[in-house]
Each structure stands twice: as structure tokens, then as C-alpha cells.
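Archive maintenance. Older records in this collection stored only the sequence; we are now back-filling the structure field for every entry so that each record is complete. The fields below show one back-filled record exactly as it appears after the update. Entries are processed alphabetically, and Microcin C transport system permease protein is next in the queue.

ARCHIVE ENTRY
Title: Microcin C transport system permease protein
Organism field: Tropicimonas isoalkanivorans
Length field: 360
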Amino acid sequence: MGAYLLRRLLLIVPTLFGIMLINFVLTQFVPGGPIEQVIAQIEGQGDVFEGFSGNGGSGAELETVNEDYIGARGLPPEFIEQLEKEFGFDKPPVERFLTMLGNYLRFDFGESYFRSISVVDLVLEKMPVSISLGLWSTLIAYIVSIPLGIRKAVKDGSSFDTWTSGFIIVAYAIPGFLFAILLLVLFAGGSYWQIFPLRGLTSDNWHELSLLGKIGDYFWHITLPVVASTISSFATLTLLTKNSFLDEIKKQYVITAKAKGLSESRVLYGHVFRNAMLIVIAGFPAAFLSVFFGASIIIETIFSLDGLGRLGFEAAVARDYPVVFGTLYVFGLIGLLIGIISDLTYVLVDPRIDFESRKV
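Back-filled structure field:
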């Protein structure tokens, strides 16, 4: 197992290199880079930084530029060259890419172009929101889906299986953003009941509350976002668990165990569970990452949660490349590490699995 883990850890390096290289090359062909964004605002062609208002403010360089050049027309070449030097675009792309990789190996992601804060501090500031959303959604999905899937497998073909399957299919068919809006309309004061807050993870007076009050306020705010982000993964995981258990229940070793007089629960949880859960465990990284990196963008935007998904979206729109590549590097690294953790979980559930015989 040690040799396999070493190979997987070493494989992270070329994988991250490929991810960063492809995205860096793509950004070279995307129109409207950070310099064009600054020039557009100076010339009054659009407030491209409006999405950042109230989130730390713009950087000192941008404030100076606005004071000196606001409303200007026909910017001099010297000023453009100064901007390119400040943003590092006076160097060839290959040199910029290699410098970026060297800095990233030391976890030095630089500073945001348009905010007076380093990328590391910015990511650490936003990460608790996304982690909360991803962990709670994944945890609830597994806690509910696995027992429900096992029950559906045992009661396959019954009225319970039919009705729950209908509910699951309907839940899966509803887009996450549409379900989030529906929750806001119904329970956040849209048109009916105002049971839950409309935005944020905490109230304005959160620091004045007691410990129990803070915990209650946190769960009060996170309920709707977690429900909205869990609905699709809940449906997928339930059907995956059911089908996995059905495949195992029909195998010969289950029939043999029952013939020996073992109880149904002993057969189900003592023999079937270990084999059937392998495919469910294999889906854990995808389930967590889909909530943490994918659904978080929509959910955080709808519920006004200041997390990594929203940060990455705003940075991409404003061409804030240090934030874009910094979050991409962190996301890619976390995804690769979670894949390795998933393999370790395989061995924990079923020690018969041997990864040493694998080449990669």
C-alpha cells in the first residue's frame, strides 16, 4: 500500500501541472484581460468592479488610477506600459507561467489585482462558508440515502419502493437553482412564510449571542442552502445504494449464508454491506466535490453566501487572474487528495483489496 500511495502522490505533480498549463493557455486567448478591465473603467465604459463593492474594496493601485485618470480618453502608451508592468504582463507568457508555478509550489499565490488582500487570506476568509455547505450537504445525503437505499433494496417491488422511487425521481429532475428559488419563495419571506433568513450564514448580532444562540443562529441560516444543495445528490446516492445492494443480495454467498440460518440483519450488515458499500464509497469524492466546487457557485449566489464558489465566479468575470489560478490550484490539489483518501477508505471497508498490484 505504501508504494501505491507514493505513486499516487507523485502523480499529483504532473496532474496539477497539466491543469494549470491548460487553463493558463486558455486565458491567453480570452478577450478582456485585467488591463482592458482597468482601461474600460477609466474610460467610463463600464464598472467592471461593481461586483466587488463591499467585499474588501479595490487595491491601492486602482484607487490611484481612478483619481488620476477617471474620465480620461486616449490613454498614453506610457500609462499602458506601467499597467502591464504592475500586473506582470511585460514578461513573456512562458516566463510568467514558470514564475507562477514556482510561487505556487511555495503556496505563494500573490495578491489580488483588485483587492488589497493576498489570495491566501482571501481563500481562507471564504473557505469556511463553502466547507460548511459541502460537509453538511454530503453528510446529510449519506445519512439519509444509505439507510433508505438499503430499505428500498430489501423491499424491492413493494409499494414503499414505488412511492419513494417516484419521490426520488421528481427530486432529481428539479434543477438545484430552481429548487433553491422555490425554498426562498416559500420559506424566506418571498410570498408565503418567513421562517428562515433570506441571506448569509449569520445574523448581524451574531457576536452578541451566547454559545447556544450562535449555534442555533448558524443552523437557522444554513438550513435552506443545505437542503437546496443536497436534493440532487440525495436522489443519486439513494438509487446507487439500492442497486448496489440488489446486485449483492442476488449472489450465491448470500443464499448460502441464509441457508446456514443467519438472520436477515446479520446477512445484510455482516456480509452484504461490506461489498455493496464499495461503489458508494467510490462516489464520495464526486459527491463532495460536486457540492463543494460545483453547486456552491449557484447556491452561494442565490443565498448571498460569501464563499469560494462566488469568489471564483466574480474573479473570473473581473479577470482577477491571481485569484482565479490560486483557487484553481487549491481546488485541484484538494480534489486529487480526496481521490487518494477514497482509495484508503476502500481498504478500510474491505481489507481484501490490494492496490499494490496496480501500476498507477
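Update note: Residues 46-73 have pLDDT under 50 and may be disordered. The domain at 120-349 is CATH 1.10.3720.10 (MetI-like fold).
Entry marked complete.
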